[in-house]
Amino acid sequence: MTPALPPLGAAVRREFALSDDFLTVNHGSYGATPRSVLAAQEAWRHRMEAQPTRFFAQELPHALRAAAGRLAAFVGADGEDLAFVSNATMGCNAVLRSLPLVQDDEILCLGHVYNAVRNTMRHVAAERGARLVVVDLPFPRPDRADVLAPLDQALGPRTRLAVLDHIFSGSALVLPIADMVARCHAHGVPVLVDGAHGPGQVPLDLSALGADYYVGNCHKWLMAPKGSAFLHARRDRQPGLHPVTISHGFGQGFVAEFDWTGTDDPSSFLALPAALDFFARLGGAALMARNAALAAAGADAMAARLGTEVGAAREMRGAMGLVRLPVEGAASQEQARALRRALLAAGTDAPVNAIGGALWLRLSAHAYNEEVDYQRLTALVETVLANRYPG
Question: Model pTM greater than 0.90?
Fold first, then answer.
């Protein structure tokens, strides 16, 4: 029997530091950290500043590994295979910049790849004479076959790494990542999964998934403090893998290298157990299912009100929804950015992206949201569109 969820929506909003005069329906960009987790982070900062030398030399190593162990248990991994990084992009950088590439090698990614990671791949490929191969996917509402078939066709003898998103940032599609990893491995190609949106949005079992590398943010759906993310590396892939900053731990192994890259504030990592406790108190797996259902209902209702469509079929939806905006003509990213600025000025934030020649709005659902939020969002969108596109 599934345990009952605690009261959510407006009932828990006060547990966050969110502004009362702003409609928050975008948890996917930067997350929102509960007050109790911020308090735990501040407690760690006080311990650090009480005696910095003692803290960094004697307390931090054990505390960092303890936090890694808690997180590893949540994502289905061994703590010794997990290292902390400041964000998922930094974790992707560590893997890509450690990759031994030569002239005409290929890095493969999917067309909706996150732009910061795309830029990292472009930089690494150009630096070493390699090629970036981008696999285009049909959109909107692709199915499993629409993803796997072009991936199979693009994998080749020069593919040295496939960089696969678990959940696309712009289009919010939840991909069949286990099948994708298996296809790549069948071709002998290692896989880096960019799971920036994975932890806390969808269940994870990294040991079962078997990806060579998986990076994930904790400040988004797990509600940890900003600057909290992880890199999981399979044991056989750890030799030769280095952090972006080379420091005292160089050559001493995966954990030693990543755990100390120089003096920094580690409190965001150390507060992770408090974030995991809060996440569990609000329902854990049941909370994830509730958020996905709420996002789907909100997106469906908005699309019906606007007379448009949603971007994902049911099997590829998570706690974010994508709705096409009723704007005629070919869309541009400049238009998308202008609409997002207009929404911010109107009192809400929902990312807008130009995908496939149309403008698409992404909404999110988390513990503090409820159905009325998406009704308010739709009304604000209608007002902004009427002002920008009269008649």
Answer: yes
